[in-house]
Amino acid sequence: MTKDGNKKWKRFEKLVAEIQESFAPNAEVTHNDKILGIITKKVRQVDVSLKGNIAQYKILIAIECKDSKIRADLPEIEGFAEKLKDIEANKGVIVSASGFTDSAKTKAKAAGIEIYRLVDTDKHDWQTYVSIPALCDIRSLGKFNFTFRYIGKLPSIITTLNARTLLLYADNGSVIDSVINLLAKKWNEGFLPKEPGIYKGIKLADNSTYLKLETSFYRIDVFVNIEVRRNLYFGQLPIEKIKGFRDEQTGGVITHGFETGTLKMIDVEEKWQKIESEKDLAVLPVLTLGFINHYPMLEIKFPQSQENK
Rounded CA gap, 80 and 17, in Å? Predict the structure, then answer.
C-alpha cells in the first residue's frame, strides 16, 4: 500500500483502465463498476467495464484484473465465465500481472475469454522490459578497382597512378576531387547500386575530367568496378517505450505504437549473431533494419601551384 492508502491491486486496475481508455476513447470506461446480474439479481463487481453503442446495439466488455505473484489458474477463468453470463457481457477479458497456467489458457479459449498480460515500460510495480527480434541488413563496398581511358595522346612515360592521391581536374583547370573521394561520394549519395553483387564499368564522373602531368592537362575517363556486400546480423532490439497488452494465446502485443532504444552499429557487429541468410533463423524477425555504410572523405592535398592561386 502506498502512503496515500492506494492499494497495489487497485493501482493495477486503474492502470489497466487507463490503457484500455486510450484504445477506446469513444467508449465509456469505468473502473470498479457495479452491474446488476440478470440471473442472480445481485450487483456484480467488475474491475473495468467498457460500454458503447454500435448502431442500435449496446455493447458491454468486462475486464477482470489479477495482480498476483502466481499465474492465474482454472478457478479464476471459471468464476469469471459465470460472472460474464450473469451480467450478459458481450466480451470478457482477464489481465494478469503474472500470466496464466496452461489449463487456464485452454479453458479461456474454450469460453471465448481473452487473456492478456500487462506490457508497460513506465517505471512502476509492473514495469516491463521488452525487446523484439530484429534483423540488421548492412550494405557496404567490398573490393573495388579503377580503370582509366585516355583520350588523345599521353607522354610516353608517366608515373604509376595511385587512386588515393590521384586528382581529377575540370576543363577550367580547377581540382574536382581525388578519385577515391569521388567513389565515396557517389556511394554515400546513393548513385551506386546497393544490391549485393559485382558491378563493372561505372563511370566515376559525369562531366569531362582531366589528368595533370607536370604542367599539361590530358583528357581522361575513370571507371570503377565494385563489389557490393550484404552482412546480416540477428539480435534483440530493445524497446524503451511501449504501453499495452500481450495476448497470452497468440503472443501478439496490442499497442498504439512503441519507441525503440538507440542502436549502435558497433554493438550490432560485436554483439549480434552474424548469419548467412534469413533461412538460418529459427525465430522470424519482427523488424528488418536496413543500413548503408557511410565512407568518410579523405582530405585533399592540393598541388602547391593550386594552393597559391
Answer: 18
Quickly tell me which residue has 552499429 as its cell. 265
> Residue 166: which region, alpha, beta or left (left: phi > 0; alpha: psi -120 to 50)?
beta
The pair phi, psi for residue 297, each rounded to 5°, is: -85, 135
Per the CB < 8 A criterion, the answer to whether 124 and 112 are in contact is no
Tens of pLDDT, residues 51-91: 999 888 899 999 999 999 999 999 999 999 999 999 999 99
Pairwise CA distance, residues 309 & 307, whole Å: 6
Same domain, 37 and 94: yes
Distance between CA atoms of 147 and 230, rounded to whole angstroms? 25
Q: Are the C-beta atoms of 253 and 244 separated by less than 8 Å?
A: yes
Q: Which class for 294: exposed (0-12), middle (13-18), buried (19 or more C-beta within 10 A)?
A: exposed
Domain of 164?
Answer: 142-227
Q: Please check whether residue 244 lies inside any domain of the structure.
A: no
